[in-house]
Structures are given as structure tokens and as C-alpha cells.
Write a structure and sequence with these properties.
35% strand; alpha+beta; 4 helices; 3-stranded antiparallel beta sheet
Length: 196
């Protein structure tokens, strides 16, 4: 599952105290981003938070400073950033936002790869994938131009059949190649088929 927050990357702020009450100064912002990420999940067809161990791949894209020369801007695109905010402060705010949405708790993140670069399109992209070995992508359907009503009916029946044989449907997604667009179900509790 993928998430993208456009704009200058945000960093986690410390909690503040006012009249002996501690509060999160970014609470409203986190709720707003969480709602946007939920919409992104719906568009991707992801149906529930990931279970078990997770690999998180984070790409932090910083804006190229406007004050730089045109030549320096061109050279900077794609180069690594060594200025603040720190990588871990940026990760932390987004990992908190994704609790109960991408996973049950950010303690499930068992492997992490993060890079911080300059980009003409600033933002933070996070890709989460399961490290559990008992899940496969079950091919459901291939189509050329668009999905018909019959195709949708077939997809619903296929999903129901998987449920009847005690298979947990994690998400639905699409991939395109020269044959057309393929619809897959990520299914928990199924072993990889032997191609031998």
C-alpha cells in the first residue's frame, strides 16, 4: 500500500504543556492527513491494515530552494539532502498517522528503508508491504479498456469464493502489461503455487 503527502515534508514536534495539560500541537494536522491517506487507501483498493511484520519504504522529497541558480537547481534534483529536519523526525509523524490505518501499530515495522532527496515535486511517499510469507497475490481478472458490469460481478464472486475457503482478503490492486490491466487479490493464508 502507498501513501503520498504533497508539499514540504513535516517533522514531528514535541508535545507542549499549558496549565498542566499536555497536548500535541499537530493533532489537527495529523487528523487531516489521516483522512487524506484513508481516501488514498480506498482508491488503491486496500481493505484493512496490514498484519504482522512490515517493510516500510519512505522517500522524503525536499523542495529545491528558490534562491538557488537555475544551474544549481538542475544539479540538485535527485541529490541527497543533509539539512534538517532529521529523517527520524519526519518518519515519526507519518508512522503515528498511519496507526490503525496502514497497520495496527507502528511497532509492526520490522524493516525500514528511508531516503531524503531534493525534488521538483516535494512530499513524503510511504510504501508498506508485508514481510509475512503466507500471503500471495491471486490473479482475478484481465481486461483491456474498461471493467464491464460482468467483470465486476465476476470479481465479487471470486472474492466470495476466497472467503468461503477461509482465505482472508487483504487488498485488491491492479497492474498493467502488454496483455492489459490485471486485477489481483492479496490473500492471506494461501501458500505460493508451485510453478515447477
Amino acid at each position: 500500500m502507498r501513501f503520498f503527502q504533497e508539499g514540504k515534508p513535516l517533522a514531528q514536534q514535541r508535545h507542549r504543556t499549558f496549565k498542566n495539560i499536555t497536548y500535541d500541537p499537530q493533532s489537527r494536522l495529523k487528523k487531516k492527513i489521516n483522512a487524506e491517506f484513508a481516501k488514498q487507501l480506498q482508491r488503491q483498493g486496500d481493505l484493512k491494515p496490514l498484519e504482522g511484520a512490515i517493510l516500510a519504504t519512505v522517500t522524503i522529497s525536499h523542495p529545491i530552494p528558490k534562491s538557488w541558480s537555475k544551474k544549481r537547481k538542475e544539479k540538485a534534483n535527485g541529490k541527497f539532502v543533509t539539512s534538517r529536519p532529521d529523517v527520524d523526525n519526519i518518519e515519526k509523524i507519518f508512522f503515528d498517522i498511519l496507526n490503525k490505518l496502514g497497520y495496527h501499530d507502528d511497532s509492526q515495522i520490522a524493516a525500514l528503508f528511508t531516503q531524503k532527496k531534493y525534488s521538483k515535486r516535494p512530499g513524503v511517499e510511504i510504501e508498506l508491504s508485508s514481510l509475512e510469507d503466507d500471503m500471495i497475490n491471486e490473479h482475478a481478472l484481465t481486461y483491456k479498456d474498461k471493467i464491464t458490469a460482468e467483470d465486476l460481478d465476476y470479481l465479487a464472486k471470486k472474492a466470495n469464493r476466497l472467503g468461503l475457503v477461509n482465505r482472508q482478503l487483504i487488498r485488491a490492486f491492479q497492474e498493467e502489461d502488454k496483455e492489459g490491466m490485471h486485477v489481483y487479490f492479496s490473500v492471506e493464508g494461501m501458500k505460493e503455487k508451485n510453478n515447477g
